């Protein structure tokens, strides 16, 4: 496979519907064999982008290069891709085998060759023996496997997946995640999947493009996105995040104040003048409950608001006053492993010290003070 | 949510639009769309132009502005028809919608027995020409009618009771009674759908909040059926306002717009006044159409996918009341239709009640007899056949393609407006459009390429397809909307041409709707008289027109016989439809049922 140039290049894609902007200056390279996710809330333009890649929708401006060829003006029927939809879009009046063979038959292949290809695909998605069933006689998970087999029937080099798992039960969904990923690896097909499920993206993607309001706000590996979210929006959308309002302290480099407390941040690069407003962010599992306030640094004294049992862990909702005596309370969610709770007295209303590790804190400078 | 543009957004990207390369397939779709638009332009829009022009011109074709309208409203005899039509339509609408509301509610929301029977009877008048209903009324309430003569003096003779009752049929009473029977099934169909779309959760919520049944009715039932009610009101008003058949038979000296047009055009050959009255006939229906469209647009999903269907609970008192009510309404319908059937077999009403088939021998009456009947069957068959092809393809290209969005919207608009055109207006507009050998436009004479259609079977079929286009189009569109729009995308991704997907997927999935459209077109073409009465030629006489001719000539029994033949043909069509759909469902059970 050609590893020099990206398999798919999107260059400055814009899409407008009348006066509303659906996509704004999207540029993106997808490498051959890569599993890329377009992740974002509903209405962020991710499905529109997928449809533009497929040629089902034309961009208002921009260029699409696939396998070295400019395909911007090619209709879908002249491009190379297979597609799977959330609705499965299986033809209800055709059997499983006929659904999978739908594109093959059009290519005027010999009957025997079609039959053996259908068998091969059924094996691939683990549905041997169901070829004579109709879609209505299958479970949701089975239907989506048929849709996958059908999309792969013509051996496309690009597989497009539009929220394919969203309509399934949680358990089936989790199983299929691994299967789809393994299948994509095995076939080496380049895949682009649209999703609003961050967990799905984190577990399946090689790279994730997080989208918001028609723009790509961050591209990176799942770990990069999770560890180093580029904006508060990404931080909040991928995983859970606590946001603490803060001010740059005059006490030194990388020192911030939130309410009455002082927090130090490791590796802080930016130069902001003392008194600038910032947003400090820390993930719930990174916070630690201390047994008592022993005068450690980076500790917040908080009050327990509620304790929820989540199974593997407890979810604590804590808060502290931002300004002494008045103003809004700052909420803090902490995930505490079940075994760790026995050391703490977690009555509602109790005061607990929370340690914020200096290397877990991210700082967002907010010019227009927009809370996510 | 998509972000609205700001000024700076508008400046950033280049304004050039990217258009996809046009493939052979796309050309084929464009051709199909162009054909549909051409059909609708010729069938719906273009014929209205000479109609409007005529109403603004004098007999010699000179432009006179609104003079004809002024003249119309200044001649008391004519102007009163406008008021008469409004009165009849308003009263009919109130009665028909009110009666149908109760009837639909009883079937949808109670546990009374015999719902299937009552539903079938309510729809029976759909299979009879309005003329037949009027003739049934004549046999019941006319001068020698069953009721008027007290069962031919039976009560007087046996019981000594003068139980004869004269409702003074000819005039407003007769028209309203006839239109009521004609409009009732239409209102019932719409309200039945509205009454069935109830969300049980709303009723449970209302009960749990301790609301009284009356309050629940006002707060839950009525708002839920609001749009159905609006629709039913406008449909009934339009039908009653524009119907020709009933007033033709039982109108007497009570003139309405529809009969005036007929008299002006057929009786006095006054085409200018015919055109003027046609526009007056058109105006309220267009207004009704616009209001109805606006109301429907506001109707967001009354029923969401999470709605729980309401299953009525048995209630002895309510169920009994509902049963009695529906029985009375059904009896009224059956008696009128039954009177037509019975009268067609009676030797000489009311003097010799021996049964005979002689009225079915049409040789000695006018109208065209059995040949007219055969013509009607063929015309209805062609209307169904060509209509279903044109209408379904039209709906398909509008709903399932992305070709030329503006033109598709225009085609959709044309498809929707035909419902606002009364049959008489279509008929008279077609005379103006198709009859001349050439049109004169701004002093130039253009040969009329469609003139060859005039006086042929083709123009009758065209008139019927256009007349019944919108309802069929909506049926097709609804069926197509239920098919996953991504089928087209999936097919494109597999490089399967659209026509193959149409043949293998879309059409097979839509067959029940296709059958329904064909049945609808056949039945309506059989019973309609208004559009075709101006367009039939002496060589191609029609059954429904024959009823008019026979009735005019006083051959009421023959008219009744012809009515029965039409009803029979429609019921057979309905039976065929039922069998076909049953077979379809049986064959497709495997992939329909989970």
Topology:
The complex is a heterodimer of chains A (372) and B (594).
Chain A: E1 8-17, E2 20-30, E3 35-39, H1 46-54, E4 61-66, E5 69-70, E6 82-85, H2 96-106, H3 111-125, H4 140-152, E7 158-162, H5 170-187, E8 190-195, H6 198-204, E9 207-212, E10 215-220, H7 222-227, H8 232-237, E11 242-248, E12 255-258, E13 261-264, E14 277-282, E15 288-289, E16 299-309, E17 313-323, E18 326-337, E19 351-355, E20 362-365
Parallel strand pairs in A: 3-8, 3-9, 6-7, 7-8
Antiparallel strand pairs in A: 1-2, 1-4, 4-5, 9-10, 11-12, 11-14, 12-13, 14-20, 15-19, 16-17, 16-19, 17-18
Helix pairs in contact in A: 2-3, 2-4, 3-4
Chain B: E1 3-4, H1 7-11, H2 24-45, H3 48-55, H4 67-74, H5 76-109, H6 115-123, H7 130-141, H8 150-159, H9 172-196, H10 200-208, H11 213-224, H12 226-242, H13 245-250, H14 257-267, H15 271-298, H16 316-345, E2 346-348, E3 352-355, H17 369-400, H18 405-417, H19 423-434, E4 438-441, E5 444-447, H20 457-467, H21 469-481, H22 486-493, H23 498-527, H24 543-552, H25 556-587, H26 589-592
Antiparallel strand pairs in B: 2-3, 4-5
């Amino acid at each position: 496979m050609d590893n020099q140039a990206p398999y798919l290049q999107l260059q400055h894609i814009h899409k407008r519907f009348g006066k509303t902007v659906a996509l704004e200056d999207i540029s993106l390279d997808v490498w051959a064999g890569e599993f890329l996710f377009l992740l974002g809330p509903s209405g962020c333009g991710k499905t529109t982008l997928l449809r533009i890649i497929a040629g089902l929708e034309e961009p208002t401006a921009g260029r699409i290069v696939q396998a070295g060829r400019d395909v911007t003006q090619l209709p879908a029927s002249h491009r190379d891709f297979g597609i799977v939809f959330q609705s499965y879009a299986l033809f209800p009046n055709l059997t499983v085998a006929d659904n999978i063979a739908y594109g093959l038959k059009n290519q005027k292949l010999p009957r025997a060759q079609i039959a053996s290809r259908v068998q091969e695909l059924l094996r691939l998605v683990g549905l041997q023996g169901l070829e004579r069933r109709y879609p209505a006689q299958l479970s949701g998970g089975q239907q989506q496997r048929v849709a996958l087999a059908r999309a792969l029937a013509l051996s496309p080099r690009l597989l497009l997946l539009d929220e394919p798992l969203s309509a399934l039960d949680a358990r089936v969904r989790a199983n299929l995640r691994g299967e789809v990923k393994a299948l994509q690896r095995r076939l080496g097909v380049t895949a682009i999947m649209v999703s609003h499920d961050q967990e799905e993206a984190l577990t399946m993607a090689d790279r994730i493009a997080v989208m918001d309001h028609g723009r790509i706000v961050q591209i990176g590996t799942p770990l990069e996105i999770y560890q180093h979210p580029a904006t508060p929006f990404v931080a909040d959308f991928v995983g859970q995040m606590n946001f603490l309002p803060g001010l740059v302290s005059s006490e030194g480099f990388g020192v911030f104040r939130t309410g009455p407390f002082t927090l130090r941040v490791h590796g802080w690069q930016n130069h902001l003048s003392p008194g600038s407003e910032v947003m400090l962010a820390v993930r719930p599992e990174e916070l630690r409950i201390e047994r008592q306030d022993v005068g450690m640094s980076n500790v917040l004294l908080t009050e327990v608001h509620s304790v929820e049992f989540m199974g593997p862990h407890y979810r604590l909702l804590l808060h502290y006053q931002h300004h002494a005596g008045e103003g809004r309370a700052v909420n803090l969610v902490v995930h505490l492993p079940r075994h760790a709770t026995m050391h703490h007295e977690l009555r509602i209303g109790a005061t607990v010290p929370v340690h914020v590790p200096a290397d877990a804190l991210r700082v967002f400078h907010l010019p227009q003070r927009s809370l996510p | 949510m998509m972000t609205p543009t700001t000024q700076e957004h508008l400046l950033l990207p280049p304004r050039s639009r990217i258009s996809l390369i046009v493939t052979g397939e796309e050309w084929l779709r464009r051709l199909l769309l162009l054909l549909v638009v051409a059909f609708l332009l010729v069938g719906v829009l273009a014929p209205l132009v000479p109609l409007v022009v005529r109403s603004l011109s004098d007999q010699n074709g000179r432009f006179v502005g609104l003079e004809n309208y002024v003249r119309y409203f200044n001649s008391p005899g004519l102007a009163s028809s406008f008021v008469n039509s409004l009165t009849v339509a308003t009263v009919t609408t109130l009665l028909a919608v009110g009666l149908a509301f109760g009837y639909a509610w009883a079937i949808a929301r109670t546990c009374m027995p015999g719902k299937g029977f009552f539903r079938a009877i309510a729809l029976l008048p759909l299979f009879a020409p309005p003329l037949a209903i009027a003739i049934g009324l004549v046999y019941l309430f006319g001068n020698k009618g069953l009721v008027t003569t007290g069962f031919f003096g039976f009560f007087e003779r046996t019981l000594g009771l003068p139980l004869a009752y004269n409702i003074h049929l000819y005039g407003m009473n007769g028209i309203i009674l006839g239109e009521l029977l004609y409009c009732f099934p239409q209102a019932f169909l719409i309200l039945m759908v509205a009454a069935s779309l109830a969300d049980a959760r709303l009723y449970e919520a209302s009960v749990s909040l301790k609301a009284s049944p009356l309050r629940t009715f006002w707060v839950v039932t009525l708002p839920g059926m609001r749009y159905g009610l609006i629709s039913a009101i406008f449909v009934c008003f339009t039908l009653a306002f524009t119907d020709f058949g009933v007033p033709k038979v039982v109108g007497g000296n009570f003139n309405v717009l529809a009969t005036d047009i007929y008299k002006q055009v057929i009786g006095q050959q006054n085409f200018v006044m015919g055109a003027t009255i046609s526009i007056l006939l058109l105006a309220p229906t267009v207004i009704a159409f616009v209001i109805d469209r606006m109301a429907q647009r506001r109707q967001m999903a009354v029923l969401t996918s999470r709605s729980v269907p309401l299953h009525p609970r048995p209630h002895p008192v309510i169920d009994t009341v509902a049963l009695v009510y529906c029985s009375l309404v059904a009896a009224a319908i059956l008696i009128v239709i039954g009177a037509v059937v019975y009268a067609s077999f009676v030797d000489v009403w009311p003097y010799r009640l021996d049964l005979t088939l002689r009225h079915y021998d049409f040789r000695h009456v006018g109208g065209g007899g059995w040949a007219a009947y055969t013509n009607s069957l063929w015309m209805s068959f062609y209307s169904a056949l060509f209509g279903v092809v044109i209408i379904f393809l039209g709906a398909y290209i509008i709903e399932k393609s992305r070709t030329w969005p503006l033109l598709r919207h225009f085609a959709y608009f044309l498809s929707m407006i035909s419902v606002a055109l009364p049959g008489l207006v279509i008929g008279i507009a077609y005379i103006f459009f198709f009859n001349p050998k050439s049109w004169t436009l701004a002093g130039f004479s253009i040969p009329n390429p469609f003139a060859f259609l005039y006086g042929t079977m083709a123009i009758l079929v065209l008139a019927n397809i256009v007349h019944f286009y919108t309802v069929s189009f909506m049926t097709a569109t609804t069926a197509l909307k239920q098919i996953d729009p991504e089928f087209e995308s999936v097919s494109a991704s597999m490089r399967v041409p659209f026509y193959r997907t149409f043949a293998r997927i879309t059409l097979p999935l839509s067959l029940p709707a296709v059958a329904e459209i064909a049945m609808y077109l056949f039945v309506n073409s059989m019973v309609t008289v208004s559009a075709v009465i101006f367009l039939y030629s002496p060589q191609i006489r029609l059954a429904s027109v024959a009823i008019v001719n026979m009735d005019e000539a006083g051959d009421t029994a023959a008219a009744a016989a012809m009515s029965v033949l039409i009803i029979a043909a429609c019921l057979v069509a309905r039976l065929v439809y039922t069998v076909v759909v049953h077979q379809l469902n049986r064959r497709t059970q495997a992939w329909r049922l989970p």
